[in-house]
Structure formats: structure tokens, C-alpha cells
Design a protein that fits this description.
The protein is α+β, with helices and mostly antiparallel strands and about 575 residues long. It has a domain of about 260 residues: Rossmann fold (3-Layer(aba) Sandwich), CATH 3.40.50.1820. The radius of gyration is 23 Å and the shape is globular. Bound molecules: 4-nitrophenyl phosphate.
């Protein structure tokens, strides 16, 4: 029941971070697949045909567009500024692997928020100095700005001159708008109250969208010029009976049938025209038509690294996966789903990955996801797996602000960051200790999760034995100064426009309260959560004689894309946690 030696630990972590992870980007006619994988040490995309993987991109990528069924090339993007998220875009002909060509000569690199590949035309949602714009590119020849978006938003799909746009309102709703792609003009699609979580054009040019409300998601139809047309009726009733709380993914197949990946309580299932397509328990991030009536999907669970599976017909089969080394498999317990009561009696969904290397009443990490509009679920997490290997139970609260539990739960965080969502995180930690799972709780997170970690250690230091803050936010005032228009708009959304709270909700103003060991890990070139405020935070912590350690990850930005990136974040955290465990025992 004790942890492995340090050299064993580093060797095991190396094995873990080197595991290949496979996903499907799309299927093409002729049973060909576009597979995107963490493989060869980085994210690369491959043409899969006759059990052979042919790498398409030359250098590792950070973005890829879902190609249409009859695609003759793929659109990829990569950061060209050492992690500063300045993306350059390329297209690669499928019959000429490695032959990357500039997508839009003269456009120059910039932060890309979405890519929609329509074959002849490609639509890019991109940040410019003057805001977020949709750009139309004709691969290899010309490009033009189509029109601006009124805040944080992105083009989700396009069809015959119309674009479907999702935009955050100041109230945190995600509304559906139509963009006339010739004129660049936006119009509202009047819809009943709720947030649009996924949208696609049908082959006939109608819009099908998933509308998230307080207690579930419904599928609706709309049409350009006609607005909302009511609920979508599907032949199969399995999807309705499933009572989805979220939609991970949606598309039509080439026969006009609707593929939906719906989720509830940390797991998801695949539906074809409303009929359930059985598969292993866990999380699917997408599904595409394959062969003769089958589907091919991206699947993972907390115990199964990302893989490509074929569903339908007789059960399922794995097309592309990597095997977990036995020592890793043995360390990972069975994932659990719980509801934990918070300070205001609301019930917080909590996912637990027990470590078989920890006893009951062992060490535990409360791992806090980023976003905050994101969630922890039964999908693969290299960080959760590493913590279990290190002998920590992993407790993952879906604090208010998380997706997957309805619009109200997601929006409860607006105007109250470092407020009640911190109570949710604290409640998860107390629950872990009071149920006998945890002897003590360490808090850890990346990005918004790093911010939550800093909040926890400066506002609730008595609740946590230590903390690991990755890519954290410590000062909203300085952060705003350093942000681009997209993230400025996002910060205004998070604070519900109330800038008077910036100071009060910034951990840098509570350095005095630090009393637990703190490990700071921060990418040098992070443009989402910049390093500079952390340098001032450390300066204050030093002045006040606080105990902390810090690791600056060189030549890296916010995104964790390569094996080297994962190591830069994970290894300093692992060494810190191994020392905490050594000191506190259990
Ligand atoms: P994330 O990053 O947690 O990785 O999505 C964030 C970046 C910026 C902000 C929050 C989270 N922000 O508030 O500006």
C-alpha cells in the first residue's frame, strides 16, 4: 500500500504520458477515415485505409477541421509562436501526404476559434485586433473577412451561403444566429429560452440544434427566414427516454440520418435517428458513418485511453487503441458518480477515480477542471491517471459553472467566481474526508482549475493540505490588460460585467492567507492566463515569507498538445505530490 520509489515513479509516469491516444475526425466515402492521434510524441493526423495509417501533416498540428464526406484534402492548423496560440492554417491533399500548403496566403497567423470545412470554401472564426471575425478562404487562393461577431462566439456550421453561429449573450446564454455568408450580416434565430449547445444544417438546409435548459436538452428545428420550427421528431424514441443533459456532438450521415452523442451524469451514448447504438460505458466525443450501416466513434473512459471504436452490427470492436501497461491498469479503480451537498444545499455532481495504490482514508487530490464551462466525466484524463498511479484517490467536482448539468447550473457561476463554486469544491473535499475515502485532501487544477486552486489556498487554506496551481489566474485586473478581445469579452461574461469585483476575487490580494505548501506550474508563453501576474504573486509570497515552489514551462503556451508539454506540467506536480505524500503519510 505504499507508493513506488521515485525512479519507478518517473518510469511509470513516462509510460503513461507516452501512451498513444486515438480519435476519429471524420469518415470519408470509400471507408476511409481521418484519424487524429497523440502519436509520435505529438498531435498528428492520418489517413486510415486498409489498416494502414498514412500521416498527412508534416509538422505536428494543434487544430483540424472536420472534412466533408467527399473531401480531397484536410485543413490543419498549428501554433507558430511557441505556444502563443498564433495559428497558421494549411491544407494537405489526401493524395499527397506531407504536402502542406498555405490555406490563405497573406492572412497571417492568429488565434483560431473554429474551422468549418465546406470543401470549396473554408470558414475560419478568428481573433483580430478589432474583435472576432468569420473569414472565408478558398484554399490556396484568396480570403476575405465575412463579418464580425458581437462577442465570444464561433461559426459552427455552414450550408449554401448560410452560416450557423453560436454567441454568448452577456447573461451567459448561448444564442443561435444565422450569418449571411455573402454579406456578413447576422440575424437572430428566435428560439425559446435556453442555450444552443450544438447545431448542424440538415442536407435540406434546415437547422437542427440542441437547446439546453435547466433540466435537460431538447432537439429543435429552425430554418433561415422562418425561425424556430419546434421540436425535432425522430423515428427512434431511445434518445428521448435517455433524457439527455447535454449533447457532445451532432451530425447527419450521407443518407440524411441524424447522429447524436448525448450525455448525462458523466457518461455518454450514441444515437442514430433516435435509436441507441450500444457501446462500452464511458464517453464518446463524436461518431461518424462507417461501412455498411455501422458507426465509427471516438471513445474513452477514466480506465481506457482514447481509442477509435466501431459500433452497430454485432456489438462493438476496437479499431485503433493503445494498451494500458498492466501496472497502470492495476492502479486505476472503478469510477464512481456521486452527488454532494454544498453550502447552500445544492447538490454537486462529483466523479471519483479511486486509486488502488491508496488505502481507504488515503491521500486524495481534489482535481478541479478548467473552463469553467467544461466538466469532468468518465473520459480519459492523463492527469487523473497519473494521480492514481501516485497513490492519490482523485475527486473531481463538477462545481457550479460546469457543463453537462443544465443551463442554470452552468450560469450560477456568473458574477460570483471564487464564490459559491469554491464552496462546491470545499464540499467535495469535506465529503471525501467524512466518508472515509480521504485522510487529507490536496487541491490541484489547470487554467480555471488553477484559479480555483489559488482561491482555495488563499480563502479556505484550512481545508487543503497542499495545492498545485497550473496556468492559474491570480489577478483579474492585470489579466484583462494582457488579454485579447476574445478573452476580454469572456472575463466580462464571467463577472457579469461587474468589474468592481475584480480586486476582491483575485488571489493576489490574499497572499497573507497562504499557509499550505503551494506548487506553481506555469507555461512561459501562455496567452490565455499570462505568466506576468504570477511573477508578482510570487514576489509578494516571497516578501511575506510564504513557502512555495514554482516551475516555469519553457517554450510552451496554454495548450497541452505534445508529450513534452504533458511532461512539463505533470512531472513537477508529481514530484511535489510525492513529497507531500511522504510527509503526510496515509
Ligand atoms: P481554461 O482557460 O480554463 O483552459 O478554459 C481559461 C482562460 C481564460 C479565462 C478562463 C479560463 N478567463 O477567464 O479569461
Amino acid at each position: 500500500m505504499t507508493g513506488p520509489s521515485l525512479s519507478n515513479l518517473v518510469r511509470e509516469l513516462e509510460e503513461l504520458v507516452r501512451l498513444e491516444a486515438y480519435g476519429i475526425t471524420a469518415s470519408l466515402e470509400g471507408s476511409r477515415l481521418i484519424v487524429t492521434a497523440l502519436k509520435e510524441g505529438a498531435l498528428n493526423t492520418y489517413l486510415y485505409t486498409e489498416e494502414e495509417l498514412i500521416r498527412l501533416n508534416r509538422e505536428p498540428i494543434s487544430l483540424i477541421a472536420e472534412p466533408p464526406w467527399d473531401a480531397s484534402r484536410v485543413i490543419v492548423g498549428r501554433d507558430v509562436a511557441k505556444g502563443r496560440e498564433q495559428h497558421a492554417l494549411y491544407y494537405v491533399p489526401l493524395d499527397s501526404p506531407g504536402d502542406e500548403r498555405e490555406l490563405a496566403p497573406g492572412l497571417g497567423p492568429g488565434r483560431v476559434l473554429s474551422l468549418v470545412d465546406q470543401g470549396e470554401r473554408v470558414y475560419v472564426t478568428r481573433v483580430f485586433d478589432d474583435g472576432i471575425w468569420v473569414v472565408e478562404a478558398t484554399p490556396g487562393s484568396s480570403w476575405r473577412r465575412v463579418g464580425p461577431l458581437p462577442g465570444m462566439g464561433w461559426l459552427a456550421d455552414a450550408h449554401r451561403g448560410w452560416g450557423a453561429v453560436q454567441v454568448f449573450t452577456p447573461e451567459g446564454r448561448i444564442r443561435l444566429m444565422l450569418m449571411d455568408l455573402a454579406a456578413g450580416v447576422l440575424s437572430d434565430v428566435a428560439a425559446p429560452g435556453g442555450s444552443v449547445m450544438a447545431v448542424r444544417f440538415s442536407p435540406q438546409g434546415e437547422l437542427v440544434y440542441a437547446l439546453e435548459k435547466t433540466d435537460g436538452v431538447e432537439l429543435r428545428r429552425a430554418a433561415p427566414g422562418e425561425g424556430d420550427l419546434g421540436l425535432l421528431g425522430l423515428p427512434g424514441k431511445d434518445l428521448d427516454e435517455y433524457r439527455p443533459m447535454g449533447v457532445n456532438y451532432m451530425r447527419f450521415d450521407e443518407r440524411g440520418r441524424l447522429i447524436v452523442v448525448a450525455k448525462r451524469e458523466g457518461a455518454s451514448q450514441v444515437f442514430l435517428d433516435g435509436w441507441r447504438v450500444p457501446g462500452p460505458r464511458g464517453v464518446y466525443s463524436n461518431a461518424h458513418p462507417y461501412g455498411d450501416g455501422e458507426l465509427v466513434a471516438s471513445y474513452s473512459s477514466l480506465r481506457a485511453p482514447p481509442q477509435v471504436v466501431v459500433l452497430g452490427g454485432e456489438g462493438h470492436r476496437v479499431l485503433l487503441s493503445s494498451r494500458l501497461p498492466p501496472a497502470l491498469e492495476e492502479a486505476l479503480g472503478e469510477p464512481e458518480f456521486h452527488r454532494v451537498e454544498s453550502a447552500d444545499a445544492r447538490r454537486v455532481p462529483v466523479i471519483v477515480l479511486p486509486s488502488r495504490r491508496a488505502r481507504r482514508q488515503g491521500p486524495a487530490v481534489v482535481l478541479v477542471h478548467g473552463g469553467p464551462f467544461s466538466e469532468d466525466d468518465d473520459s480519459w484524463s492523463v492527469f487523473a491517471a497519473a494521480l492514481a498511479l501516485l497513490g492519490f484517490h482523485v475527486v473531481m467536482p463538477n462545481y457550479r459553472g460546469s457543463t453537462g448539468y443544465g443551463e442554470e447550473w452552468r450560469n450560477l457561476i456568473l458574477g460570483d467566481v471564487c464564490g459559491m463554486e469554491l464552496e462546491d469544491i470545499v464540499s467535495a473535499a469535506r465529503w471525501a474526508r467524512s466518508t472515509g475515502l480521504a485522510a487529507y485532501t490536496v487541491v490541484m487544477g489547470y487554467s480555471y482549475g488553477g484559479f480555483a486552486t489559488m482561491c482555495a489556498l488563499t480563502r479556505k487554506p484550512e481545508e487543503f493540505a497542499a495545492g498545485v496551481a497550473g496556468a492559474s489566474v491570480v489577478d483579474w485586473e492585470e489579466m484583462y490588460e494582457l488579454s485579447d478581445p476574445a478573452f476580454r469579452s469572456f472575463i466580462d461574461l464571467l463577472f457579469a460585467g461587474d468589474r468592481s469585483k475584480w480586486r476582491e476575487r483575485s488571489p493576489i490580494n490574499y497572499v497573507d492567507n497562504l499557509s499550505r505548501p503551494l506548487c506553481i506550474i506555469h507555461p512561459q508563453n501562455d496567452t490565455r492566463t499570462p505568466l506576468k501576474p504570477l511573477l508578482r504573486f510570487m514576489d509578494r509570497a516571497l516578501e511575506k515569507g510564504k513557502t512555495f515552489e514554482a516551475y516555469i514551462a519553457p517554450d510552451m503556451g496554454h495548450a497541452v498538445n505534445t508529450v513534452e508539454d504533458i511532461e512539463k506540467i505533470l512531472l513537477p506536480a508529481a514530484l511535489f505530490l510525492a513529497r507531500i505524500r511522504e510527509r503526510l503519510g496515509a
